[in-house]
Design goal:
Chain B: It is found in: Cell membrane; Membrane. The structure holds 2 protein chains of 2 kinds. Chain A is mainly α. Helices cover about 65% and strands about 5% of the residues of chain A. The longest helix of chain A is centred in the C-terminal third of the chain and has 33 residues, at about 280-315. In chain B, the strands form 7 sheets. In chain B, strands 2, 3, 4, 5, 10, 18 and 19 form a 7-stranded mixed sheet that branches. The chains are: A mainly alpha, B alpha+beta.
Chain lengths: ~375, ~675
């Protein structure tokens, strides 16, 4: 185990990635200062503290040679699984889900760290399972990756934390597809997506007289069904299931080209937005800063992803490449799902926006991921 | 260092292409996000801006004060008094249906039905507008207010809100004219707001009478105050600067209505009128302005404005005495002998009769196989036109009808306003019926016969008039033939007492009647009150102190039930079969000023049961005129305090008349007005 930074690593520090990440984080704190204006608690200061802790975490992760991390992937993964199981018994229940450990003043969300554990384990599986002379992954050979993803996916799903489970699923799926699968599996996936779209169209969108012939809708619970219809037409039930989505769209749309100005947002200031400093933080940004700066933020995120993929592109080994892909996919799907939900493209799920949303666990897990990227980048030509 | 494994050696030349694809896919998806952002923020930016403004700007209505209603001398009859409503704000009412509403029901003594109704209201409010207070009890009594205030801590979301409440100071007096108010219905709301008014659900709107007719004028124009509210509906004062200058539009108070009715005369009419049911109307003969108006039984507008329970409402509508009907204009009656002035005028006009024309009355008049009886079985002997009027001899008028037929009588009646609406507008009215031969050809089986003319000539048969029509007709006779439109509102004033709109007398038509004819009719009417044997001679002597004032009068006793073989005494008949007692007349006869009509429904005889009331009203009118000539005018805007005794209840009236009115109205009473009369 190597705990030092050698001189030859320094030229490979990914400064672009680090600058983009710090840039988004600082914009995030500035934005939180608006979202949590009085009389709400000024959470931006704690967010600044979390950011500081996050930077420390990045440094710590950098110091460790990632081959040690590779060896430790299994223990990390198992420890996370055990933590999730322990949550069933000693977890803290909030908003109907058992998602938190309460340790003193802190509340830890193990699912956030599980994401990283899954990414590491998956990368290790793909690293160890490298057979250059065989064709791409078929159904049988996929059992290992699927098992690695499936266990935490189910554990998080039963918390229930649909959003995080979805994120684990999507980022793993990206990694698995990246690891190349046989064409029939891709075809099945495309067919499944199409089928899902058709079911939703038939059950919710199609204009037919009641009672409409439904395929899945009558099997869903009422609140699940409402979530879908609230996504498709938030204005239909403004005071009920569509409230979040509709108010969020109003906030974003009313931002216009240049926004209402920092701390001038009415949707934010008058608290029409639910969860405005966590899940719906992007609508605060969009309302107060408008289209131009929203695009800037998207460009910054895009730059983070491109730099991250660049790290994987130049990685020394398969483990590094797969970790980079996994980490970037995890960040990407969170950003995509969160912003998509805020602007009314995707249904509302409880996903935070990396680096912008308030929350220690979220900040820490993102920073650990960034630390992994920096680590991989720095050790590109070590051997 | 560990030896490199197979994976370590080739970091993935084959992976590199996949990295490019992955980067491309992510860029495309971020592009999708920015396209949607463009749609929201640029394409539909304005629309969402408007929505966000609508979110936080709450318009609070500033209610305009409703105008007051005053009598001719400025005494306030209807105004608004401060009161308290109990309201529930659904959003703040936790455990509403389980705890709060049962507690409210206990404190306010609701029955299960009412509690259920309130529960539904609150539930509905919670869905539609959770921050909009729902009134659950208007106009709390002092006791209820105290009980609620004491238990405020266990009543989440219940508040006691100060709200002006309409106060009808006259109680049941004038109730049909003043009207009442109650909550606007959904359909009315849509219709009125479609026409440009600004009502809200839960607003009160005028029903009946002046409250309905002058609704738009009394109501005024509501103002608006804009406020910034947050998502919980709380006011955020410091953000009000965002609203700009026109954040407040001040309300404009409604106009005040000044009646032509003088409460002092009204009180005298109420006091003097003995009946349980009936009407009194006093009208200025030269303008058509109404000076006093009694319709009995009345209802209590204070009760109907908000507080009425369904049980009370059902009681009101089931009452056989029909307290909601305005008997002055919205109900018609056989005029009886009071109609004889029309017959007399038609007779003189035809040229076949003159006041001196003598007809012998043997106690009846024979036409064909039947005899039409005079009210005096032994007969009046030979009578001329004037004496026929004085003693109300039916035979003289039978002779007239037999000679000239129905149509000249009908024409005369119609030209004097009978059989058509008077145009009063403020209150509902029925047109009455003035039959002609054409009417009978259409309406009666077998068509017109001479017998119908005989019935009509003495105000029976299909003749039906409202007391108001009769008063206008006598006024027209008094003033030389001008038929006025009846009015009871002199002017509308604004808050400072300046006149907004003045109502001038309106002439319906001038009837061409030779002055000689009028003079002889009036001479006959004067004999009724001034010569012994006249039907209101005694009541004038008893009721009036100014005996030198000439009174022109005619009494009538309109028969309701068919006359049997033997005449029944009043107390032998059931209440709804008894005769109507009429009085119609004006004073002073030589220089007419006021016309008075009294109808004592099922009251008995005109000379005994109606004339004294009229005499009292006329005497009071003369007294007031003398008083006002010397005394200075009173200070206006004094609130009215009732000084009349309350109207006699049906039970009390029954004590003096022997038989109680039945609880339910039998169906077959109305069709019996036929064939014969019992004039005085």
């Amino acid at each position: 185990m190597q705990l030092r930074i050698e001189r030859r690593m320094v030229p490979h520090v990914p400064w672009g990635l680090i600058i983009c990440v710090l840039g988004v984080s600082l914009l995030g704190i500035w934005n939180l200062a608006s979202a949590s204006r009085p009389p709400l608690a000024p959470v931006w200061s704690s967010q600044a503290l979390y950011l500081g802790l996050g930077v420390v975490a990045v440094l710590v992760v950098c110091l460790v040679d990632y081959r040690w991390i590779q060896r430790m992937a299994m223990p990390i993964y198992v420890a996370n699984i055990l933590a999730l199981i322990a949550l069933r018994f000693i977890g803290h229940t909030a908003k109907g889900a058992e998602s938190w450990f309460v340790i003193g003043p802190f509340r830890l969300q193990p699912a956030e760290f599980m994401k990283i554990g899954v990414v590491l384990m998956l990368a290790k599986v793909y690293h160890d399972d490298f057979r250059p002379n065989e064709p791409s992954y078929g159904l049988v050979r996929l059992w290992k990756p699927v098992l690695v993803v499936g266990v935490p996916f189910v554990l998080v799903l039963v918390q229930p934390d649909l959003g995080t489970a979805l994120m684990i699923g999507l980022s793993s799926l990206t990694v698995i597809l990246f690891g190349k699968v046989r064409w029939y599996l891709v075809a099945t996936l495309v067919a499944a997506i199409l089928a899902g779209a058709i079911v939703i169209w038939n059950d919710y969108v199609r204009d037919v007289p009641e009672p409409r012939p439904t395929i899945v809708r009558h099997h869903l619970k009422k609140h699940q069904s409402q979530r879908i219809s609230g996504w498709l037409d938030p204005e239909a039930d403004l005071r009920g299931s569509g409230y979040h989505a509709a108010q969020s769209k109003i906030a974003v749309g009313s931002g216009g080209v240049s926004g209402k100005g920092w701390r001038e947002g009415t949707q934010t200031g008058l608290r029409f937005l639910p969860e405005q400093h966590t899940d719906f933080i992007f609508s605060v940004w969009a309302e107060e800063h408008g289209f131009v700066l929203c695009t800037l933020l998207l460009v910054l995120y895009g730059a983070i992803f491109i730099f991250g993929l660049g790290v994987g592109f130049n990685a020394r080994d398969r483990f590094g490449a797969f970790v980079a892909v996994g980490v970037v996919a995890m960040l990407f799907w969170q950003v995509f799902e969160n912003i998509g939900m805020v602007i009314g493209l995707l249904p509302v799920t409880g996903i935070t926006l990396p680096l912008m949303s308030y929350g220690g666990s979220s900040m820490m897990s993102v920073m650990l991921s960034i630390g992994l990227l920096v680590n991989i980048s720095m050790r590109r030509h070590m051997f | 260092m560990t030896p490199p494994t197979l994976g370590n050696t080739t970091p993935g030349r084959e992976l590199r292409r996949r990295f490019l694809w992955l980067g491309l896919a992510m860029t495309v998806l971020l592009g999708v996000l920015s396209i949607q952002l463009y749609r929201l923020q640029i394409t539909r930016g304005e629309e969402y801006s408007a929505k966000s403004v609508a979110n936080f700007v709450k318009e609070v209505r500033l209610r305009a004060d409703r105008g007051v209603i005053k009598d001719a001398r400025g005494t306030i009859l209807v105004d608004s008094r401060p009161s308290f409503d109990a309201v529930v704000t659904p959003a703040f009412c936790t455990d509403c249906s389980e705890q709060v509403i049962p507690r409210l029901a206990e404190l306010l003594q609701w029955d299960a039905d009412q509690a259920k109704k309130v529960e539904d209201l609150v539930r509905q409010g919670r869905r539609n507008a959770p921050f909009q207070p729902v009134p659950v009890r208007v106009d709390l009594t002092r006791d209820e207010y105290d009980r609620l205030a004491a238990r405020r801590d266990i009543l989440d979301g219940v508040e006691v809100a100060p709200v002006p409440h309409r106060h009808y100071r006259t109680n049941t007096v004038l109730s049909h004219v003043l009207g009442y108010m109650n909550e606007i219905t959904q359909e009315e709301l849509e219709r009125l707001n479609g026409d440009g008014s600004r009502y809200a659900l839960g607003d009160y709107i005028g029903r009946r009478g002046l409250e309905r007719y002058f609704e738009q004028r009394l109501r005024g124009r509501d103002g608006v105050r804009k406020e910034v509210v947050n998502a919980r509906g709380q006011k955020i004062e410091e953000l009000n600067v965002k609203l700009g200058d026109n954040a407040v539009v001040q309300p404009q108070a409604g106009s005040n209505v000044v009646l032509s009715i003088d409460m002092r005369l009204q009180e005298e009419a109420e006091r003097a009128f003995p009946g349980v049911t009936g009407a009194v109307v006093a009208i200025d003969v030269h303008t058509g302005f109404i000076r006093a108006l009694v319709s009995r039984p009345g209802f209590d507008p204070n009760l109907l404005t908000g507080r009425v329970t369904p049980t009370q409402m059902a009681q009101l509508s089931r009452d056989p005495l029909e307290p909601m009907v305005n008997r002055v204009a919205a109900e018609h009656y056989s005029p009886g002998s009071t109609f004889k002035v029309v017959t007399a005028l038609a007779a003189f006009k035809s040229g076949a009769f003159r006041p001196e024309t003598v007809v012998n009355c043997p106690g009846g008049y024979r036409l064909g196989a039947r005899t039409w009886r005079c009210h005096l079985d032994r007969g009046h002997g030979p009578v001329n036109g004037l004496d026929a009027m004085k003693s109300s001899c039916d035979t003289w008028f039978y002779k007239v009808a037999d000679t000239i037929g129905l149509d000249p009588i009908g024409e005369m009646g119609k030209s004097l306003g009978l059989g058509s609406p008077t145009g009063i507008n403020v209150v509902a009215e029925v047109p009455g019926i003035m039959p002609t031969s054409a009417y009978h050809d259409k309406a009666s089986p077998g068509g017109y016969t001479k017998g119908m003319a005989l019935n009509s000539a003495i105000g029976q048969g299909d003749n039906n008039v409202t007391p108001l029509q009769l008063a206008l007709m006598y006024a027209a006779i008094a003033n030389g033939g001008t038929l006025y439109k009846p009015q009871m509102v002199q002017r509308l004033e604004n808050l400072d007492g300046q006149v907004v709109q003045e109502f001038k007398p309106e002439v319906v038509r001038r009837v061409e009647i030779p002055p000689a004819h009028l003079k002889s009719v009036i001479e006959g009417l004067v004999k009724v009150a001034h010569e012994p044997g006249g039907t209101s001679y005694r009541s004038r002597l008893k009721g009036m102190r100014d005996l030198d004032v000439l009174v022109a009068a005619k009494t009538g006793t309109a028969q309701v039930a068919r006359l049997g073989a033997i005449r029944l005494r009043t107390h032998q008949m059931s209440y709804f079969e008894r005769d109507h007692a009429w009085f119609a007349g004006f004073a002073p006869a030589d220089k007419p000023e006021i016309a008075v009509v009294v109808l004592n429904e099922h009251g008995g005889h005109g000379g005994v049961d109606a004339a004294p009331t009229a005499m009292a009203v006329i005497q009071k009118y003369l007294d007031l005129k003398k008083l006002d000539a010397s005394a200075p005018p009173p200070r206006p805007n004094q609130p009215y305090t009732p000084s009349v005794l309350r109207a006699p209840s049906p039970d009390e009236a029954a004590l003096t008349r022997g038989v109680k009115p039945p609880k339910l109205l039998p169906g077959d009473e109305e069709a019996l007005e036929d064939t014969h009369a019992t004039p005085d």
